[in-house]
Design brief:
Helix content: under 10%
Radius of gyration: 22 Å
Strand content: 15-25%
Order of helices and strands: EEEEEEHHEEEEEEEEHH
Number of domains: 1
Structural class: mainly beta
Largest sheet: 9 strands, mixed
Strand order of the largest sheet: 3-7-8-9-10-11-12-13-14
Length: 330
């Protein structure tokens, strides 16, 4: 996706005003370069009521100075994981093949249990049977059974925090999603209200939040069961992260530190899970040159999706196209 860039400069100069008739010098407040921007990248900006300011556009890899930054959301958590890698000189390596190195190391497609990601939902036996039947239709993390193929909203927690615009006020916080799988939104009410007693189920559920210190804690219920909690990922390492019931309950924790947003989702489902499932993510503030853009979703022609084939080289050799026969035979 091409992103529009603004040519706004970083005006970090402090204005000094001399007051006539006295010896006092007033220092004008420094205006941040964009909504929610930290002045130095390390100091957490705050709102007038003292809470961390979560406002602004959040997107992409965390630039922490510890080597090449990678996509903020691992595969199976939206569409943002394991596809690009940003090197220390700022260049971006994008691999449109099945060899998403940041997710799979050797780049092999995962079609068996020995290469599955360890942190996947703890399904009950009845639900695990359904999940395995879905996984059997996946190839490279894609299946016609995924509701995203029909442009259904990703929901919580699958949508994650990558590619979002946060608009924060004391009474409510709006999360604007750039591609989940299209431009959409949800509201987190922070005015002290409770969940409605006659709540109808929806894709995003109903969110109410409160502050615990510097962390926004959000309680989300009222989901329909048309969404998934995750997906197969770029090469299928999270094949067993899919369905849930309408009894799913998510507790989110949003914590900002400088220009990094940390996110935790505790997912409970007394019907589908045997115990809570916890996922964590973090993402970088976009800064003054990055903006939310409109994204439109068109339902896929699912007949053209590739189904798993045991004779496919990526499955039979357990590696991508760059592996030679000798290496694959070991």
């Amino acid at each position: 996706m091409t992103r529009r860039k603004r040519n706004a400069g970083l005006l970090l100069l402090t204005s000094v005003i001399v007051v006539t008739g006295c010896n006092r010098v007033q220092t004008a407040a420094v205006k941040p370069p964009c909504p929610g921007c930290s002045l130095d990248g390390k100091t957490t900006p705050r709102t007038a009521d003292g809470h961390p300011d979560l406002s602004g556009y959040w997107n992409g890899a965390v630039r922490d100075g510890r080597g090449p930054a990678r996509a903020a959301s691992p595969a199976g958590f939206g569409f943002t994981g394991g596809v690009f890698q940003r090197d220390s000189d700022g260049s971006i390596i994008y691999d449109p093949s099945t060899e998403y190195n940041s997710e799979s190391g050797a780049g092999r497609i995962c079609q068996s249990d020995d290469c599955q990601a360890p942190n996947q939902p703890p399904y009950t036996p009845a639900y695990m049977d359904k999940v395995r039947k879905i996984a059997a239709t996946e190839f490279g993390g894609t299946t016609p059974l995924d509701p995203v193929q029909d442009c259904r909203p990703l929901g919580v927690p699958r949508a994650g925090i990558n590619g979002i615009q946060v608009v924060q006020s004391p009474q409510e916080t709006a999360i604007l999603y750039e591609a989940a799988p299209y431009s959409t939104f949800r509201l987190i009410y922070t005015d002290g209200r409770s969940h409605p007693g006659d709540l109808e189920t929806t894709y995003w559920g109903h969110s109410i939040g409160h502050w615990e210190g510097d962390t926004l804690v959000v309680d989300v219920i009222g989901f329909n069961d048309d969404t998934w909690v995750g997906g197969g990922g770029a090469v299928g390492r999270t094949r067993y992260t899919s369905i849930h019931s309408e009894k799913m309950h998510v507790t989110e924790r949003w914590t900002r530190s400088g220009d990094v947003l940390n996110y935790e989702a505790r997912v409970e489902d007394p019907v589908a899970f045997t115990k809570p499932w916890v996922v964590t993510r973090r993402v970088q503030h976009g800064g003054p040159k990055d903006e939310l853009v409109e994204s439109i979703c068109t339902a896929n022609v699912k007949e053209h999706l590739v189904a798993p084939d045991p004779n496919d080289p990526d499955i039979r050799k357990r590696c991508g196209y760059r592996c030679d026969d000798a290496a694959a035979a070991k």
